[in-house]
Design a protein that fits this description.
Layout (H helix, E strand, L loop, with lengths): L1 H23 L5 H27 L1
């Protein structure tokens, strides 16, 4: 029963994020997308390295 409640809460939260994002969100410029993609690549690389180090020790 607890799992069903948790899943229901997750779906309600996702529904709210999508609807509010479509209503109030504004599109990003190409410069913003480029900046965020660079930051995302670096963060993903750092997380992968951290996971490998954690697994080794």
């Amino acid at each position: 029963m607890t799992l069903i409640i948790i899943l229901l809460c997750v779906f309600v939260a996702m529904f709210l994020m999508v609807t509010l994002g479509e209503k109030f969100g504004k599109p990003m410029t190409d410069e913003q997308q480029g900046k965020y993609s660079k930051i995302t690549r670096i963060l993903v690389f750092v997380l992968i390295v951290a996971a490998i180090i954690k697994t080794m020790f």
